[in-house]
């Protein structure tokens, strides 16, 4: 699979900066539309063996749950991951965005499930950090 970053709810100006920087690294970006939140993460990432699923209607409950910026890194080498994270930190782009990696487990999930799981994990980690 070719490296790709899935962008969700990233403002257009930030998305342009990300796309330009990632392109220089040989990494593509893909803005995930609200109409695609019920597609599998594997399909959106371009992983082999995943096809677009027909969905009847957009789930209104999912739309309400998906708040905030999310970057999902797919097919990254360790070096690409480190370069990308350093770039984000250095340029202060998307500092509040939640970041996730495509895994063998989550590639079968719907994008909406990935967002719920990542947001729950982020909330838990934030609460643990605040306890210290």
From TrEMBL:
The organism's place on the tree of life at top rank: Bacteria
Protein name listed in UniProt: DUF3783 domain-containing protein
One matching Pfam family: DUF3783
């Amino acid at each position: 699979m070719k490296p790709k970053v899935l962008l969700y709810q990233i403002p257009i100006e930030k998305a342009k900066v990300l796309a330009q920087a990632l392109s220089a690294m040989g990494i593509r970006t893909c803005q995930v539309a609200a109409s695609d939140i019920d597609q599998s993460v594997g399909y959106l990432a371009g992983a082999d063996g995943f096809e677009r699923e027909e969905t009847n209607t957009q789930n209104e409950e999912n739309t309400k749950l998906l708040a905030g910026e999310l970057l999902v890194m797919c097919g990254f080498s360790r070096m690409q991951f480190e370069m990308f994270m350093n770039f984000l930190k250095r340029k202060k782009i998307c500092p509040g965005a939640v970041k996730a990696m495509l895994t063998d487990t989550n590639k079968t999930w719907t994008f909406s499930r990935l967002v719920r799981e990542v947001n729950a994990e982020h909330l838990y980690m934030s609460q643990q950090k605040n306890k210290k």
